[in-house]
Write a structure and sequence with these properties.
alpha/beta, 7 strands, single chain, 18% strand, globular, Rossmann fold
Length: 266
């Protein structure tokens, strides 16, 4: 499958339902619809607030890549950033625009755009933020190149991508590989074909560092703390305790599904 066909599949998948909207059955675009999406997101992924530090960037020109249902983007606008938001899908832009209107908020810009070809000039933003998005791109190195391009020297880049050496990735391998009689199937292949949209990728720390070595960035921190997904929050208590024990033995800050990356452009 070529990259363009894969991108169309990714776009179609997320256009059917923006990330997070599966957590509610409320009327679309209603206040309860957005409230349930937000409550679920920050309950299951509480690390977002600690990582993003929304209020720290008041007055800064910020780009969020992949706004989804608009939950994080609204936090940026509330925090007083000059917020620009893009997404590959019209569905996400509509979700986010409706959310802003419901709260009486305004962003600098909200538009459909491709992270592999950002529609902004060089050195334009103080901050670029993306949570769980660019690993769905057929060409993540190109996304990184574009992100670095549009950030000002001294600016901040905050990214989350999936960690292949995580408990959750191993769990997905068990379900879609080993337990289906395919013990030699690679974890990367399982995630590519069975995790969210077609083509989903996950990386190791070394791979991320190698990719970033091509760009003028300073790595401030790369971390993969265990998440609720690794701890199988939706499973029975015995399974959750088992996951907790494995996480403690394997390294709490290294085997999490979410690899958070803090960078500074040189």
């Amino acid at each position: 499958m070529n990259k363009q066909n894969l991108k169309e599949q990714v776009k179609q998948y997320w256009n059917n339902a923006s990330c997070g909207t599966e957590s509610t059955n409320q009327e679309k675009f209603s206040k309860k619809y957005f409230q349930e999406i937000e409550a679920f997101r920050y309950k299951v992924e509480p690390e977002i607030h600690l990582f993003a530090q929304f209020t720290r960037y008041h007055g800064k020109k910020l780009l969020e890549i992949g706004v989804g249902a608009g939950t994080d983007f609204v936090q940026w606008v509330r925090a007083g950033t000059q917020a620009y938001g893009i997404d590959l899908t019209q569905e996400a832009i509509e979700n986010t625009a409706e959310r802003l209107a419901l709260d009486g908020l305004k962003a600098q810009e909200l538009r459909v755009a491709d992270a592999e070809n950002l529609p902004y000039q060089d050195n334009f933003f103080d901050v670029v933020y993306s949570w769980g998005v660019i690993h769905h791109s057929p060409d993540m190195p190109q996304c990184l190149k574009e992100i670095v391009r549009v950030v000002k020297p001294g600016g901040t880049i905050k990214l989350m991508v999936y960690n292949r050496r995580s408990l959750f990735a191993f769990y997905r391998y068990l379900l879609a590989g080993l337990f289906r009689g395919k013990p030699f199937q690679r974890i990367s292949t399982v995630l590519f074909n069975h995790q969210e949209s077609m083509g989903t990728k996950a990386y190791t720390r070394r791979e991320i560092k190698n990719m970033l070595s091509c760009y003028r960035v300073k790595i401030k921190r790369i971390q993969a703390t265990v998440t609720q997904h690794d701890l199988l929050y939706y499973k029975s208590r015995p399974m959750r305790w088992c996951a907790y024990l494995v996480a403690c033995l394997c390294g709490w800050n290294s085997v999490g599904w979410f690899m958070t990356i803090d960078l500074e452009k040189k």
